Amino acid sequence: ALRNHWKKSTFGACLLGWGGHWLYGKHCDNLLRRAACQEAQAFGNQLIPATVPLKKATVFLNPAACKGKAGNLFEKNAAPILHLSGLDVTVVKTDYEGQAKKLLELMENTDLIIIAGGDGTVQEVITGLLRRADEAAFSKIPIGFIPLGKTCTLSHTLYPESTNQVQHITNATLAILKGETVPLDVLQIKGEKEQPVFAVSGLRWGSYRDAGVKVSKYWYLGPLKTKAAHFFSTFKEWPQKHQAALMYLGPTERPPEEPEEKPSRPPLYVRLYRRLRSYWSSPKEFPQEVAPEDWEELKLSTIELSIATRNRQLDLTRTEDFMDIYIEAESVSKGEFVHRGSQKMRDPHMCPEGSQCIQASRCILQLPEGTEGSFGIDNEEYEAMPVEVKLLPRKLRFFCDPRMREQMLQAAVQ
User: How far is CA 156 from CA 27, 87, 119, 207, 309, in A?
Assistant: First the structure.
């Protein structure tokens, strides 16, 4: 029978092998979920005093992320862990783009903020958070990130790399329960009229970004769609130049980190004694003149400009705060453009050889009148316009895997 029906037999064997591999993968995923739930249950079984309220966790879930699969991924892999951990979980699902910014304005006090989605969801939540009138207090709330989107840049910094999606999601959720945090820089990007937008990765403006947006249009070419998008973009006027004027300030010294626990207030008689002593002993200080800011100006013509935080190469012990401004040379051949475009799809803020790198704490980007195109701010599209970009060092604290934090500290010592 096998000899007479070898085509059907071969097809049946392949189908049976694929089905067995698929079932084995599902079984392994269930084992990972069970192990993560057992670890989370250990947190939920801890005894707390009756007078201490449960910690409140507010989850901002974007069900449309990952082509509409984010809701199912969250319910299967992250929600059981959060509920078993003993947290008072409130899940807020967004229905349209920009809704998270409005919901953050109405959010009441919470102990944890958890973002379940991709780069766009992160950008919306931190923008809504830092636009609040009481952002100084709310920015101290630790933030957790569950990577469910198509692009999750922060996950490379916060969690170990994993090829298994279920393991990656469960590791990120467990990291929130373990409580280790790292401070991340934030970019404040402000136009002439618009409200400021905040980003944790950076801003891109140029030909590589414009071509990368069109990759999905060539889906029918399969693995060649990335090269095709960059190849067809070379049919425009070549070389593609983006001209602007850039003013910037250099890096700033990092102040010492404030202790999380404030010392107890001294008794009344001690405070009175200190105030009287300072009043009678210290001379009156005259206000010091503030030195003018040393702005540097640069005329640029580039194929792409990117302004990125140092969150990808996080150094917890550095003594200066700055962002990286990459100005890529405009003299690029069409072949190099297609090759580098594929690399930039994997690492958007890659800086090729021959590019100019500037370290700055603040910059102003002036565009010529009539400039068309768009910015990419944390992989979200915004109209290109003159903007001021300001670094907010160590503005937000994100939960991270303890292993990643240990690696950062060991790398800093070496």
Answer: 27, 26, 12, 25, 14
Give the whole-angstrom CA distance, residue 238 versus residue 205: 17
Distance CA 120, CA 151 (A): 9
pLDDT tens by residue, 174-187? 999 998 999 999 99
Q: What is the pTM of this model?
A: 0.85
User: What's the CA gap between 97 and 92, in Å, rounded?
Assistant: 14
Would you call the peptide bond into 283 cis, given omega within 30 degrees of 0 as the criterion? no
User: Is the Cα torsion angle 246, 247, 253, 254 positive or negative in sign?
Assistant: negative
Mean pLDDT of 282-298: 64
CATH architecture of 20-179: 3-Layer(aba) Sandwich (3.40)
**Under CATH, what is the fold of the domain 202-254+293-394?**
Tumour Suppressor Smad4 (2.60.200)
Q: For strand 112-117 and strand 56-61, is the pairing parallel, antiparallel, or unpaired?
A: parallel
pLDDT at 255 over 60: yes
The structural domains of the chain, with segments of one domain joined by +, span 20-179, 202-254+293-394
